[in-house]
Structure formats: C-alpha cells, structure tokens
Amino acid sequence: MKEETSYELLNKIDSPDDLRQLPVEALPRVCAELRDKIIDELSRNPGHFGSSLGVVELTVAIHYIFNTPYDRIVWDVGHQAYGHKILTGRRDIFYTNRKLNGLCPFPTPTESEYDTFTCGHASNSISAALGMAVAAARKGEENRRVVAVIGDGSMSGGLAFEGLNNVSSTPNDLLIILNDNNMAIDRSVGGMKQYLLNLHTSEGYNRLRNALSKKLYRWGILNDERRKSLIRFNNSLKSMLMQQQNIFEGMNIRYFGPVDGHDVTALTRVLKEIKDMKGPKLLHVHTRKGKGFKPAEEAATVWHAPGIFDKETGERIVADTTGMPPLFQDVFGNTLLELARQNDKIVGVTPAMPSGCSMNILMKAMPERAFDVGIAEGHAVTFSGGMAKEGLLPFCNVYSSFMQRAYDNIIHDVAILKLNVVFCLDRAGLVGEDGPTHHGAFDLAYLRPIPNLIIASPYDEHELRRLMYTAQLPDRGPFAIRYPRGRGVLTDWHCPLEEVEIGKGRKMKSGTDLAVVTIGPIGNDAAAAIRRAEKETGCSIAHYDLRFLKPIDEEMLHEIGRNFRHVITVEDGVLKGGMGSALLEFMADHGYTPAVKRLGIPDRFIQHGTVKELRALCGFDEDSIYHAIIHTLNL
Ligand SMILES: Cc1ncc(C[n+]2csc(CCOP(=O)(O)OP(=O)(O)O)c2C)c(N)n1
Ligand SMILES: CC(=O)[C@@H](O)[C@H](O)COP(=O)(O)O
Ligand SMILES: [Mg+2]
C-alpha cells in the first residue's frame, strides 16, 4: 500500500512566489508532491489526467524561473495545466475542478491572473503569445517575458504553423516550449511527428557532445558564462551529424534541446540560461504522457481522460453500462464501417479524434480507408473536398465546436462545388464539463446560411443510421449530421439502413392546444415533458420533429402555422440563428402569427457542469420544457 503523501512543501505554496523561495534542491520533492496531488484529486474528481502528469516538472520549472504572473505563460489547450492551477493559488479548491460553479476546465483569465488567454482549442498558443510579446515591446515592458507551451500534437495544427511563420519574421523575444510526448489523444500522426522523432538526440551525438564539452572546459574555452553559446554549438553539431537543417532554426527561431522534461533541475538550468536571450527561441522538451502513474504511461489514450479510478490499484472505475443505450459516437463508428463495406467510395476523415468519434472502428477494419489528419480541422474539410472532387465519398467527422475552425473550408472548398462530403458533427449541443470552449452550441446557426448544404439531426440512434445511409446515396451534395456527446435513447441501435426523405420531418403526435417543434435527440426530453403535461392537465399537445433544418419541411411548417396559436421550439443549440429562428422566419415570410416561445442556449457563453445541470440552467431540460408548456397555456 502506498504511503499517503503529506504535501509538506506543496501545502506551503500558495503562489509561485512561495515556490521561488525554495532552494532548487527542493524542487524534485515539490514535483513528487504535485504529482501525487494530481493523482489523488483526479482519482475522485475526473478530468484530463495524462497530460498534466507529464508536465509536472516543466510546470514547476517554469514557475520557478519565470516571474509569473508578470511574465506570461500561455498554455496550449490547457488540458495539461492542473499543476499550474495547483501552484497558482487554487490548490485548496482544486477539488471543484470542472464542476458547476467550480474551477474552470481550462485556464481562464477571469479565474486567475496566472491564466493568460483562452484555452481549450488546440494550436493557438504561439499566435496569442506572439501577440503578447509584441504588445509588451510596444508598451516598453522590456522585462516582460512571454512563453508559449505547446504539445507535439497541437504543433501539428495549421494555426501553430501560421504562428511560427509570423514569429520568425516579427521582432520578438518569445520562448516556445515544445512539450513532446509523441502523443495527441491518440498516437501523434504526420510529418511533424516524424520530424520531431528524427530530432531525438542520437546516442553517438550525446557521447560526442559530452566529450567535446569536457575538453572545451578543460582547455578553458568554455565556462559557465559561455554555456549559452554551447547550446548553439550543440545545435550546429547536431545538424551536421544528422545531415538536416533544423526546421525551427531554418525559420530564424533558435532551437534548444531536446532536453529531458522530467529532470526538473536540468529544466530550471536550461530555462535560466535561455530566458533572457533576445529573439525567438524554441525549447524542445521530451516528456512522457501519464508520467509517474504506470497504467497511464502504458495506455496513454485511455488515460487522457480516464474518469475516476482507484489510485492504489490503478484500476479505472467504470459504471456498468449493460442494458444502457449506446454512445452516439459508437453508432456512428459501427454504421460507418457497415456503409463502407457496401460502398467502396466511402472513406473516413478525422482531425485527431479517432477514439473520440469512434472512427477507430473503421480505422481498425479498413486502415487504408480512414485518415487521421492531425489537429487540422480546416485541412480535414478541404482534404475531404479534394477526395470528393475525384469521386470518393468522405465522411468527415469533426466535433461541433472544433468545426468552427473550418467554417470557410466548408463554404469555399465543399459547398460552392456541391461536393459529396458528409460532415458528421459529434459533440453537438452542450457537452458538459469541458465548458464554453467545447459546447457544440453554434453549428445549427453557423451552418444554416450556407447554400447547397443539407443539415440534419437525428432523433435517436436509428435515425442517425438512416441519415448516414441517406447521405451516402449518389449525388447528395454536402450533408451535415449533428448529434450529441454521450448516450442515445434506444437499447438496441441495430436497424435496417433505409432512406429518409430529404427535408421531411416527422409528426410525432397530434394535438390541438399547442405545437412543440424539436430537432435532434432533445426531442425525447420534449416528448417526456409533453406526456407529463398532458397527463397532469389534460391539455392536448402536438409534437413535430423537424429532423432537417435545411431544407426545412415547409409543408409541416405550413400545417403548424395554420393550426396553432402557440408554438414552443426546443433545440440543443444557440437561440440566435438556430432552428427556432428558422421557424420564426418561415412564419413571418408566410404571414402566420403564432406566439413562439424558443427554448435553447441563450446568448451568453455557458459554463461547465453536467449536461443535466447546464440544460436546466439554460431552460431546456425536461422540467423547463414542461414549465414552458404550462406557462404558455396558462394552466
Ligand atoms: C482545435 C482542437 N482540435 C482538437 C482538440 C482535441 N484535443 C485536445 S487535446 C488533444 C491532443 C493534444 O496533443 P498535444 O498537444 O500533444 O498534448 P498532449 O495531450 O500530448 O499533452 C486534442 C486532439 C482540441 N482541443 N482543439
Ligand atoms: C482537451 C480536449 O479538447 C479533449 O480532451 C476533449 O476534452 C475531449 O472531449 P470528449 O471527452 O468529449 O471526447
Ligand atoms: Mg503530445
């Protein structure tokens, strides 16, 4: 049995100032306590695990060497920043992490002055940090240092490349720390990953470097003052030996490393040496995702966000899901494979989320027909467009909120040419604990104005399968299907694959007093609310499931407009510009004047919490729908 950690040092660190009072020899102990604290807290209150464990030493070294919060540290994604939170005054409330009204899931400037920028979506740290560095220079804050900490996976994102490109040509003293653990959520992929692997210091190089530096010291050519030049010398030596130019050096960004990211003493030494160097620089750090917790080191994908676990045995505590409805993502993954077996034009595309969206099912069965393109949503869409132009039929699966990155690509590279690409937007609607950066709140509103695009959302798992089948029939053009995070509503997702008439909704039930119009699985909650209202009050309520936002079912809307004085719309998406707005436009365009109450996500960013809590806060959970019905009918 593992001894309980006493957190003797950690409990005295209320801010990085306290950390900086400690002698450097104390840092390994701080790291051990911090690591134990993260393991302990996360075993009870789930969150992003492996990434934070991997950067414990880096986090301690950064706060030890840099004058935070005056110096700006920009974390990329921010899923690795739990150590940062604990060291920056949030230790005692860390148990509230990701809970409603508790600590935010990712660094958030409104929560702490140590959090410098919006985090959540990958690859923005270099651009944001460069902006801060330029601002500091313009304001004459010459002593303010700016650091971007970015993972190897996030470095594969286009935005990171755009940032690097600009860093190389704009005067700045930025430090980019590349935290390379050779993993994204799934395995890192692509040329950047390969390039970084090639940058690994070869054994021969290490031997030569050590021998040379010893000699240089002995000859008096090298001393501590001149160590900085040695790092440069090392890089030239490395380039020479490895016969390739360092891509960062080639872009005028000084490259240092790779260094062992778990040696906190070495890290502090290197950071101290390079922190005040002029000009842009990149420190390449090798870490292990899940470091210090064996199961997480061995199965990094599962332990990216493992849920709760037993910290002694390392076993994940997983709820028994027998008899429960399947995850929507698994219905997608299995159906895609089924369709791919029938239609050899089908290929799958995912930007770095093969496990998250269950495209790993296709990937495993037909590796040559599934593409993980890295954290590259824009590219995923345009790449799909290219394949579609030449006759393939890509199913491009992107989390709804990450698809925001690819808006122009949908319009410019797919919709204008009416290409046959099926966009599957997983995690549509409120996603829960990942909060405002991750809620798939906007897709209905941002997709609706795009010509040529079919937009649908399934009521349940069977409907998802039918929509996927329908979308791959010949010459459908761009087709978007959105569905939520989590489980569906049916116990058996299997059903025959049948065509759905495009633009046709379903009348779920008739009624006379009020029409409730829904889109997507939230319709099930509305149905429950309707049953309750009818049972308790004797009223008569019609329920329409629109199914397609575009083309919208005009016949159905005429029926509603003609027959009802009261309409309630319910959607798991933003009210501004969403399905309710579309209905209102239709009613106005055709001279109908029902009183329309729209339920959905209000015009503000919704915090984190459970989906249930957040729907209630937004006013579209079953209870709220019920009360809206009662209120509308004055019952
Ligand atoms: C734009 C965007 N796409 C996808 C994701 C999902 N995502 C979160 S972390 C992650 C992997 C990041 O890999 P890396 O930067 O190497 O960090 P690590 O997890 O290895 O610590 C991905 C794909 C995201 N947050 N943002
Ligand atoms: C940090 C990040 O963006 C991902 O890890 C995200 O939290 C995954 O979300 P799901 O848990 O819904 O797959
Ligand atoms: Mg990584």
TrEMBL record:
Q: Where is the Transketolase-like pyrimidine-binding domain?
A: 326-491
Q: Does the keyword Transferase apply?
A: yes
Q: Which cofactor does it need?
A: thiamine diphosphate; Mg(2+)
Instruction: Give the Enzyme Commission number.
Output: 2.2.1.7
Record-linked CDD domains: TPP_DXS (cd02007), TPP_PYR_DXS_TK_like (cd07033)
Cofactor binding note from Swiss-Prot or TrEMBL: Binds 1 thiamine pyrophosphate per subunit.
Q: Does the keyword Metal-binding apply?
A: yes
Keyword entries, A-Z: Isoprene biosynthesis, Magnesium, Metal-binding, Thiamine biosynthesis, Thiamine pyrophosphate, Transferase
Reactions accelerated catalytically:
D-glyceraldehyde 3-phosphate + pyruvate + H(+) = 1-deoxy-D-xylulose 5-phosphate + CO2
Q: Which SMART domains match?
A: Transket_pyr (SM00861)
| Family that this chain belongs to | Belongs to the transketolase family. DXPS subfamily.
Recorded hits in NCBIfam families, A to Z, give: dxs, PRK05444.2-2
Name under which the protein is recorded: 1-deoxy-D-xylulose-5-phosphate synthase
The scientific name of the source species is Phocaeicola faecium
What's the source species' lineage? Bacteria, Pseudomonadati, Bacteroidota, Bacteroidia, Bacteroidales
Gene name for this UniProt entry: dxs
